């Protein structure tokens, strides 16, 4: 079995009396992109900064196969960890041109070899023609591409990406994250991406780690996490979800969308039903009251209310819209998840 590129065990970090990281464990594999996904304040950026060496843990350990990076008795400074860093604002040196910025970490090379290697990486991010431009002469997207080239040029074991696309407009952000994923795959460099954007995490990463309140709530491939969240918190982190709470009776929940089996939860206990809007069927009937319709090109988002006052959302094709303001909602048992938390 291949050893992890990096391991974190029982990581704890305090800011005053507040615990920002509360016993985090994770393994980063060799190759590919892993995303840390969570809301502001979940601890994801703090964890990335601790891995980078920009913060020191108050407890626990960070290690690689070659040794300890951080624990109570040892600590390796950032410049000796062999990791690349790309921040939200790029953090380019304003007095250096694009090629000078890219060459900054190539200390093992000198003269023409250093410049040639920097130009190779600028070409890989599509900016060889802007080699002599200063950061203030570059657009936001160009600055981020130079920052990426600078981080990748020294051949790091791992590149750490802290919300690198969040300051860009949507179309540019989409283009840059796709090109970044292709470049990382071609270079074979592992990456840890911090983001609060579920779409970005699902598009770029082979593995997503969901964080909330300083803890990991679930981890796995995007498809598995989206389809089978283990809690309401995990479901919400990956996008819109219908969540309905009830009491288990005779092995199931009698919900507004029908009876759903809950064989793993004893009768009398509270459980939560989760189903994604695109998996919620809209058909004939008058049980639900249609409140809003939002056209989104190839789909229409519906908001409805059930007789018990609960809100239910559905996503349908434009030609699948109900003809009246009343409809029936249901879901296949395979598309419904029942959780305790």
UniProtKB/TrEMBL annotation:
Do you know which InterPro entries this protein is assigned to? AAA+_ATPase (IPR003593), ABC_SmlMolc_Importer (IPR050093), ABC_transporter-like_ATP-bd (IPR003439), ABC_transporter-like_CS (IPR017871), ABC_transpr_FbpC (IPR015853), P-loop_NTPase (IPR027417)
CDD domains reported for this sequence: ABC_Carb_Solutes_like
From which domain of life does this come? Bacteria
For this UniProt entry, the molecular function terms from Gene Ontology, in alphabetical order, are:
ATP binding
- Gene3D superfamilies given in the database record: P-loop containing nucleotide triphosphate hydrolases (3.40.50.300)
Domain ABC transporter, chain residue ranges per copy: 6-238
Instruction: Name the UniProt key words of this record, in alphabetical order.
Output: ATP-binding, Cell membrane, Ion transport, Iron, Iron transport, Membrane, Nucleotide-binding, Transport
Name of this chain's protein: ABC transporter ATP-binding protein
């Amino acid at each position: 079995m291949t050893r992890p590129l990096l391991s974190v065990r029982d990581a704890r970090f305090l800011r005053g009396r507040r615990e920002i990281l509360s016993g985090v464990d994770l393994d980063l594999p060799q190759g590919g992109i892993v995303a840390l996904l969570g809301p502001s304040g979940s601890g994801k950026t703090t964890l990335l900064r601790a891995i980078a060496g920009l913060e020191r843990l108050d407890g626990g350990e960070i290690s690689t196969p070659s040794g300890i990076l951080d624990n109570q008795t040892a600590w390796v400074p950032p410049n000796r960890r062999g990791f690349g860093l790309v921040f939200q604002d790029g953090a380019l040196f304003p007095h250096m041109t694009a090629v000078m910025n890219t060459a900054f970490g190539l200390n093992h090379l000198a003269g023409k070899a250093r410049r040639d290697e920097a130009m190779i990486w600028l070409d890989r991010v599509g900016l060889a023609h802007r080699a002599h431009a200063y950061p203030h002469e570059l657009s936001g997207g160009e600055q981020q591409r130079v920052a990426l080239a600078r981080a990748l040029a020294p051949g790091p074991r791992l590149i750490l990406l802290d919300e690198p696309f969040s300051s860009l407009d949507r179309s540019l952000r989409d283009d840059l994250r796709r090109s970044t994923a292709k470049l990382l795959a071609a270079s074979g460099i592992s990456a840890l991406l911090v983001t609060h954007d579920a779409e970005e995490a699902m598009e770029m990463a082979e593995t997503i780690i969901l964080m909330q309140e300083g803890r990991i709530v679930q981890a796995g491939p995007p498809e598995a996490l989206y389809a089978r969240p283990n809690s309401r918190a995990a479901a919400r982190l990956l996008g819109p979800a219908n969540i309905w709470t009830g009491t288990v009776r005779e092995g199931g929940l009698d919900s507004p969308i029908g009876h759903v089996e809950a064989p793993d939860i004893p009768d009398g206990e509270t459980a939560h039903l989760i189903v994604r809007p695109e998996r919620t069927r809209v058909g004939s009937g008058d049980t639900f009251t249609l409140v809003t319709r939002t056209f989104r090109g190839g789909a229409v988002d519906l908001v409805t209310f059930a007789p018990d006052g609960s809100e239910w959302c559905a996503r349908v094709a434009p030609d699948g819209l109900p003809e009246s303001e009343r409809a029936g909602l249901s879901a296949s048992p395979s598309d419904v998840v029942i959780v305790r938390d």
